[in-house]
Design a protein that fits this description.
Layout lengths: L7 H54 L10 E4 L10 E6 L10 E6 L13 E7 L19 E5 L3 E8 L2 E3 L2 E3 L4 E8 L2 E8 L4
Antiparallel strand pairs: 1-2, 1-8, 2-3, 3-4, 4-5, 6-7, 6-9, 9-10
Length: 198
Protein backbone atom coordinates (compact mmCIF):
# COMPACT_ATOMS: atom_id res chain seq x y z
CA UNK A 1 0.00 0.00 0.00
CA UNK A 2 1.34 3.39 -1.04
CA UNK A 3 1.37 6.21 1.61
CA UNK A 4 -0.33 9.38 0.53
CA UNK A 5 0.30 12.86 2.10
CA UNK A 6 -1.72 16.05 2.06
CA UNK A 7 -1.76 18.12 -1.06
CA UNK A 8 -0.85 21.78 -1.00
CA UNK A 9 -4.50 22.74 -1.59
CA UNK A 10 -5.64 20.66 1.40
CA UNK A 11 -3.00 22.28 3.65
CA UNK A 12 -4.02 25.79 2.50
CA UNK A 13 -7.71 25.04 3.11
CA UNK A 14 -6.91 23.70 6.60
CA UNK A 15 -4.87 26.86 7.37
CA UNK A 16 -7.66 29.13 6.11
CA UNK A 17 -10.26 27.32 8.24
CA UNK A 18 -7.94 27.48 11.27
CA UNK A 19 -7.39 31.22 10.69
CA UNK A 20 -11.13 31.86 10.55
CA UNK A 21 -11.65 29.93 13.80
CA UNK A 22 -8.84 31.85 15.55
CA UNK A 23 -10.12 35.21 14.27
CA UNK A 24 -13.65 34.36 15.42
CA UNK A 25 -12.28 33.59 18.89
CA UNK A 26 -10.03 36.68 19.16
CA UNK A 27 -12.55 39.28 17.93
CA UNK A 28 -14.83 39.06 21.01
CA UNK A 29 -11.77 39.12 23.26
CA UNK A 30 -10.46 42.32 21.60
CA UNK A 31 -13.92 43.90 21.87
CA UNK A 32 -14.01 43.06 25.59
CA UNK A 33 -10.52 44.52 26.17
CA UNK A 34 -11.47 47.77 24.37
CA UNK A 35 -14.75 48.01 26.29
CA UNK A 36 -12.99 47.50 29.63
CA UNK A 37 -10.35 50.13 28.78
CA UNK A 38 -13.07 52.63 27.80
CA UNK A 39 -14.99 51.89 31.00
CA UNK A 40 -11.85 52.39 33.09
CA UNK A 41 -11.16 55.75 31.43
CA UNK A 42 -14.78 56.88 31.88
CA UNK A 43 -14.71 55.85 35.53
CA UNK A 44 -11.47 57.77 36.14
CA UNK A 45 -12.85 60.88 34.41
CA UNK A 46 -16.09 60.68 36.44
CA UNK A 47 -14.08 60.49 39.68
CA UNK A 48 -12.05 63.58 38.79
CA UNK A 49 -15.20 65.33 37.59
CA UNK A 50 -17.08 64.52 40.79
CA UNK A 51 -14.14 65.81 42.88
CA UNK A 52 -14.27 69.14 41.00
CA UNK A 53 -18.05 69.43 41.47
CA UNK A 54 -17.66 68.65 45.17
CA UNK A 55 -15.11 71.47 45.41
CA UNK A 56 -17.57 73.85 43.73
CA UNK A 57 -20.26 72.80 46.19
CA UNK A 58 -17.87 73.15 49.12
CA UNK A 59 -17.09 76.72 48.09
CA UNK A 60 -20.81 77.42 47.74
CA UNK A 61 -21.73 75.81 51.07
CA UNK A 62 -19.11 77.88 52.85
CA UNK A 63 -20.56 81.09 51.48
CA UNK A 64 -20.11 83.97 53.88
CA UNK A 65 -23.16 86.26 53.68
CA UNK A 66 -21.77 88.68 56.28
CA UNK A 67 -20.80 92.13 55.00
CA UNK A 68 -21.67 91.14 51.44
CA UNK A 69 -25.01 92.08 49.87
CA UNK A 70 -24.53 89.76 46.88
CA UNK A 71 -22.61 86.70 48.12
CA UNK A 72 -23.70 84.48 45.19
CA UNK A 73 -23.56 85.38 41.48
CA UNK A 74 -23.91 83.52 38.21
CA UNK A 75 -23.07 85.55 35.13
CA UNK A 76 -21.31 85.55 31.79
CA UNK A 77 -19.05 87.80 29.76
CA UNK A 78 -20.71 88.92 26.53
CA UNK A 79 -17.92 87.51 24.36
CA UNK A 80 -18.45 83.91 25.50
CA UNK A 81 -22.00 83.27 24.31
CA UNK A 82 -24.51 81.18 26.23
CA UNK A 83 -22.11 78.46 27.34
CA UNK A 84 -19.51 80.75 28.92
CA UNK A 85 -20.92 81.18 32.40
CA UNK A 86 -19.12 81.85 35.65
CA UNK A 87 -20.04 81.20 39.26
CA UNK A 88 -18.76 83.64 41.90
CA UNK A 89 -19.23 83.06 45.62
CA UNK A 90 -18.13 85.16 48.58
CA UNK A 91 -16.84 82.32 50.76
CA UNK A 92 -14.87 81.49 53.87
CA UNK A 93 -13.26 78.46 52.18
CA UNK A 94 -9.91 80.27 51.56
CA UNK A 95 -9.46 80.70 55.33
CA UNK A 96 -8.28 77.07 55.40
CA UNK A 97 -5.25 78.26 53.45
CA UNK A 98 -4.56 81.34 55.55
CA UNK A 99 -6.41 83.74 53.22
CA UNK A 100 -9.25 86.06 54.19
CA UNK A 101 -12.84 85.46 53.10
CA UNK A 102 -12.69 85.97 49.35
CA UNK A 103 -14.55 85.75 46.08
CA UNK A 104 -14.03 82.31 44.58
CA UNK A 105 -14.84 82.07 40.87
CA UNK A 106 -15.38 78.97 38.73
CA UNK A 107 -15.53 79.00 34.93
CA UNK A 108 -14.02 78.08 31.57
CA UNK A 109 -11.82 80.80 30.07
CA UNK A 110 -12.93 81.74 26.59
CA UNK A 111 -11.80 84.25 24.01
CA UNK A 112 -10.56 86.53 26.77
CA UNK A 113 -7.79 84.06 27.62
CA UNK A 114 -4.52 85.76 26.61
CA UNK A 115 -2.61 82.58 25.81
CA UNK A 116 -3.96 80.35 23.03
CA UNK A 117 -1.88 77.49 24.44
CA UNK A 118 -3.72 77.53 27.77
CA UNK A 119 -5.20 74.11 28.44
CA UNK A 120 -8.96 73.92 28.01
CA UNK A 121 -10.82 73.14 31.18
CA UNK A 122 -12.68 74.28 34.25
CA UNK A 123 -10.68 76.80 36.30
CA UNK A 124 -10.94 78.11 39.85
CA UNK A 125 -9.82 81.60 40.88
CA UNK A 126 -9.50 82.98 44.41
CA UNK A 127 -9.85 86.78 44.36
CA UNK A 128 -8.61 87.83 47.81
CA UNK A 129 -8.32 91.57 47.21
CA UNK A 130 -11.75 92.27 48.73
CA UNK A 131 -13.64 92.38 45.41
CA UNK A 132 -17.19 91.16 45.96
CA UNK A 133 -18.93 88.84 43.44
CA UNK A 134 -21.19 91.65 42.15
CA UNK A 135 -18.15 93.78 41.20
CA UNK A 136 -16.15 91.07 39.46
CA UNK A 137 -15.24 91.50 35.80
CA UNK A 138 -15.34 87.96 34.40
CA UNK A 139 -13.53 89.02 31.20
CA UNK A 140 -10.48 89.96 33.27
CA UNK A 141 -10.00 86.43 34.63
CA UNK A 142 -6.70 85.08 33.38
CA UNK A 143 -6.20 81.26 33.35
CA UNK A 144 -2.60 81.80 34.46
CA UNK A 145 -3.79 83.25 37.78
CA UNK A 146 -6.33 80.45 38.29
CA UNK A 147 -5.91 76.76 38.89
CA UNK A 148 -7.05 74.08 36.47
CA UNK A 149 -9.58 71.95 38.35
CA UNK A 150 -10.89 69.78 35.53
CA UNK A 151 -9.14 69.46 32.16
CA UNK A 152 -10.79 69.17 28.75
CA UNK A 153 -14.06 70.89 29.70
CA UNK A 154 -15.06 72.94 26.64
CA UNK A 155 -17.83 74.95 28.28
CA UNK A 156 -19.68 75.14 31.57
CA UNK A 157 -22.99 76.60 32.63
CA UNK A 158 -24.35 77.16 36.11
CA UNK A 159 -28.01 77.50 37.08
CA UNK A 160 -29.51 78.46 40.41
CA UNK A 161 -32.86 77.22 41.68
CA UNK A 162 -34.63 80.34 42.86
CA UNK A 163 -38.07 79.45 44.12
CA UNK A 164 -39.42 76.96 41.60
CA UNK A 165 -37.38 78.03 38.53
CA UNK A 166 -33.84 77.43 37.35
CA UNK A 167 -32.09 80.70 36.40
CA UNK A 168 -28.94 80.96 34.29
CA UNK A 169 -28.28 84.48 35.57
CA UNK A 170 -28.54 84.98 39.29
CA UNK A 171 -27.40 87.49 41.88
CA UNK A 172 -28.27 87.56 45.54
CA UNK A 173 -28.54 85.33 48.55
CA UNK A 174 -28.02 81.63 48.60
CA UNK A 175 -30.25 79.77 46.09
CA UNK A 176 -32.04 76.55 47.00
CA UNK A 177 -29.97 74.41 44.62
CA UNK A 178 -27.16 74.61 42.08
CA UNK A 179 -26.89 72.90 38.69
CA UNK A 180 -23.51 72.48 36.97
CA UNK A 181 -23.44 71.42 33.28
CA UNK A 182 -20.08 70.63 31.71
CA UNK A 183 -19.59 69.96 28.01
CA UNK A 184 -16.76 67.96 26.52
CA UNK A 185 -15.93 67.14 22.91
CA UNK A 186 -17.62 63.77 23.37
CA UNK A 187 -20.56 64.55 25.64
CA UNK A 188 -21.99 66.43 28.59
CA UNK A 189 -22.28 65.89 32.34
CA UNK A 190 -24.91 67.52 34.57
CA UNK A 191 -24.94 67.66 38.36
CA UNK A 192 -27.64 69.11 40.60
CA UNK A 193 -27.36 69.58 44.35
CA UNK A 194 -29.50 71.14 47.03
CA UNK A 195 -27.75 73.84 49.05
CA UNK A 196 -28.22 74.68 52.72
CA UNK A 197 -30.51 77.57 53.59
CA UNK A 198 -29.33 80.53 55.67
Amino acid sequence: MKKRGFTLVEVLIALAIGGIIVAAGIAPLMFTVRTLARSRDDFARKNVERAAVNRILQDAREMNPLNCETPFRIGKPENLGDDGRYLAVWTSAPTYYGLPASSVVWGVPGKSAPDAETRAGLYRWVISDGTMPRSLDFTALDPVSGSLALPDVRSVSFSALDGAEWNDSYEGAFPRALRVSMKYEDGESVYEEMLPRF
